[in-house]
Design a protein that fits this description.
Length: 321
Amino acid sequence: MLRHYSYADVEKGLDYPRLIEALADAFRRGGEPMPVRCSYDVGVDPAPGHLLTMPAWHRGKALGVKLVTVFPGNATRGLGAVSSLYVLFDGETGEPRALIEGEALTNRRTAAASALAARYLSRADSRTLLIVGTGHVAAHLPMAHRAVRPIERVLVWGRTPEHALSLADRLAGEGFDAAAISDLPAAIAQADIISCATTSSVPLVLGEHLRPGTHLDLVGAFTPQMRESDDEAVRRSRVFVDTYAGALAEAGDLLQPIAAGQWQASEVCADLHELTSGAKAGRASDAEITLFKSVGTAIEDLAAATLLVDDKKPESVRSTP
């Protein structure tokens, strides 16, 4: 039977400790490379519109695809620019098993991937987390990081101070010592972990402000034209990625320093498969600066969807014969 999972079902069904372990298992297993997401221009002139497809499979077990639409002009209609849906199929028969609300799945698997990386790359005593950004993914990052590190204090910075204050209030309700801040360089100097989840096209975190021992988690920028850090931040860090194929094709935080002759792709230390399998080591000392750049990979969606659907069926999930 085909099951339908709502936003609330996904939030309820994917707690961070189990989701992080599911992602770790998927990356550790490795296997054949998954396709980098494809984008199609589906807009009507002069209104842009894009359809993105992100397929992944575990042969004989499961396969799925996330369908994402990006229509920037939706703001004039009072609608969000991005919509998504995940379809999970049986890996043996190809029969559809579930339709899953895509935004919730993306938010949680993205935050979980950052936390998984932080388990290898941040200091074990990391207690202060700086969140740069105030969107949906940013709101999930503190709880995910707290699943792997003893996070107590959360600082929140956003371009709109009211949004930063609202997120800080929400996090305080979740048990964090949270505060909105306006001085980003000062907050960078205090943080043990910095997580950026923005759509910025200009650097927000500057390398000159990073202190030894910091872990920098770059989540938001996902095209070659976008970036959240400057060249100096990359040069000062040991750099890790979610996947080589995705990061070196889409991550402006890495591609722009490469184009400027300030850094080389060969300097990437490891990806999540190598970290989780033990093929390569993560943080080597408490003094070094580490940087994790993710652009998202379909294997994360598949792992999250499989965990959700194979778990005990939530009471609110609807089934269609």
